[in-house]
């Protein structure tokens, strides 16, 4: 059986950002976050994540 492809040519079984729906590379799946890099940067502090230099 082949993979199901969406209208943009991306397989539908690729991880998807919970916030904006973006698929493919740049999705943070660790700890079950499932956020793209951009969304993670916007909401990380609200979620309790801190940036260490």
Give structural attributes.
30s Ribosomal Protein S14, Chain N; elongated; little secondary structure; 53 residues
What does this structure look like?
With 53 residues, the chain is mostly loops. The chain has a single domain, classed as 30s Ribosomal Protein S14, Chain N. It is built from one helix and two strands. The chain is elongated and about 45 Å long. The model has no long low-confidence stretch (mean pLDDT 87).
Spatial shape: elongated
Indicate the proportion of strand residues.
5-15%
Distance between the termini: 48 Å
Structural class call reads little secondary structure
The CATH architecture name reads Irregular
Number of helices: 1
Q: What is the number of beta strands?
A: 2
The run of helices and strands is EEH
Number of domains: 1
- The CATH topology annotation reads as 30s Ribosomal Protein S14, Chain N
Provide a brief overview of the structure.
This protein is mostly loops. The chain is built from 1 helix and 2 strands; from the N terminus they run ββα. The chain has a two-stranded antiparallel ribbon.
How are the SSEs placed, and which strands pair?
Blueprint: E1 27-28, E2 35-36, H1 37-43
Antiparallel strand pairs: 1-2
